[in-house]
Amino acid sequence: MFSATDEKYLIRLLGRNEVVLFLGSGFSREAQNQIGEYFPTGYALGEKLWNFLGYSGVYDNSPLPEMYQAFLSAGIKRQKMIDFLNNNLLSGVIPETYNYISIPFWYKFYTLNIDDIPEKIYRRDSKQIQELIYPVDEFRERDQSLEKTQIIYLHGKLPCNPEDVIFSSKQYAKASLKNQPLYSQFVFDYATHATIFIGTDLNEPLFESYIESREGRGGYAELRPKSFIITPSLSPVKKEILKNEYNVYHIKGTTFDFLNWLFKIREKLPTKKEILKNTYPNLLSVLEFADLTNVPNNSINEFASSFKRVPTVYKIKQERSAFLLGANPSWNDIFKETDIPRTLTSRIHEDIGKYLSESLPSDKQRIISIIGYAGSGKSTIIKRLGLTLSQNGRTVFVSDSEYLPRPDHIVNVISAIKERVILIFDNAKNVISQIENLIKAFSTLDFVPVIILALRSNQKDRLNYVLNPDLIEHS
Fold this sequence. Notes:
Layout: H1 4-14, E1 19-23, H2 43-52, H3 64-72, H4 78-89, E2 108-111, H5 117-124, E3 128-133, E4 148-153, H6 169-177, H7 181-192, E5 194-198, H8 205-218, E6 227-231, H9 236-246, E7 248-252, H10 255-265, H11 272-279, H12 281-289, H13 297-306, E8 308-309, H14 331-335, H15 343-357, E9 365-372, H16 378-391, E10 395-399, H17 407-415, E11 421-425, H18 429-432, H19 435-442, E12 450-456, H20 460-466, E13 472-474
Parallel strand pairs: 1-2, 1-5, 2-4, 3-4, 5-6, 6-7, 9-12, 9-13, 10-11, 11-12
Antiparallel strand pairs: 8-10
């Protein structure tokens, strides 16, 4: 199906969770609807609408958007219209081969179809999905833990009101005049990720208008990743346009050809764990450490975007370091023991050890602050301290992010770790304003974490101002 070179290209990108899937109406053609017929598309659906509306004679090939506009304005009872759409465009029997579409971990999954086939495929394969449906939903971050596949219905999804799908010429015109956030996001994803188009020849006015709008803002054509359109035939003119204008290459094949190709390469694709190791190691370190089954995915993602688990072991790399020239230390520097031992590190470690070993620790929040001027070694101290604590069996997370998740997200993750953890904040100036909220949120936990802050000297007074001695034990 694909050339050897293109197959390697796609397997590599699928292994990094960097491929977008885009479905058109042709994808559903081999499935049966709720009245036991193969899914009607193009001419067949236009003819069904013609007969349903009671026009005399043989269907005259009026374009499908015009037929649907006539359908909406015919004055037919709403429930009768809904029943017609559900009977003809919701699935009944879906061939088992369709299940192969859920084998890879897609970056995102877009569809122009208004049927429920993608949902049923993933459900019957016991895989979770996150659906975004026009016109109700707007952009939402995908689940980076790969627990759920985000499926976006650009033209709406049945069952719904007949007006809530993009089908008629009037609906297309309305959609082109008003910005559609889901379509805008698709064009962004297509512009930055390899995309596989199935069941469409991309004669899609909204696609072209959003591409032109995006290019118009920059004033130049983008260097898009190589993408593919899979269809049994395509005119040579269309092939050249797609290749030259959109970097989309035609692959001759059917939907089943593509599905069987996915089945063939399944053993070459990495597991979810292997993908996360490459794409989101912070998240993997959190997922591997505790049972987070009942923790909301957005809390896990938010926590992992800011906190990294301090490793207990590390494979040292023989590479040049800029640490001795003034750069912040890497874990490689710490494990190679490039830093100079400091008595302060040992004292803090002993202090925390005593606190954690107490049978009844103080009810107050324990905060330790390491304060010094820029370049005084605060980052080195906290990394060495974090490693020492971690290698002595403590659960330690460090954050050097400018962004701090909401306290409830942090609490959701920490509550699943059935022990007292240590949270280290490097460059903690952004944390100071959130101290009160954090203390309040942590008070609900069975095991209140220890907080370690690394601050510049000019932040000392600001920190002292927000610390309440009735609630906080500070050293």
